[in-house]
Amino acid sequence: MSTAPPCPAPATTAPLTAADRCDRCSAAAWVRVHLAAGDLLFCGHHHRAHREGLARAGAVVTASVR
Ligand SMILES: [Zn+2]
After folding, report:
1. Cα–Cα nearest to 32, from 13, 19, 49
2. pLDDT over 90 for what percent of the chain?
3. Is residue 46 helix, strand or coil?
4. In whole angstroms, what separates CA 26 from the centre of its chain?
5. How close is the Cα of 41 to the center of ligand 1, in Å?
6. For the chain, what are the domain ranges?
7. Helix, strand, coil in percent for the chain, rounding step 5
């Protein structure tokens, strides 16, 4: 895959809350990633599942919860 274009500045770096849900399964979000197309939220499981693809797409983690 070719190099992804640089991302614009993240839309938000606010901490994740209990109201933030994974975009894939509606579990509590643990990670917010910023892409050129917008922000996505992932639970721990789905962030691990998609981490490599997100990195190739130029995603930047803007918030995470442990
Ligand atoms: Zn999930």
Report:
1. 13
2. 73
3. helix
4. 14
5. 8
6. 17-66
7. 20, 25, 55
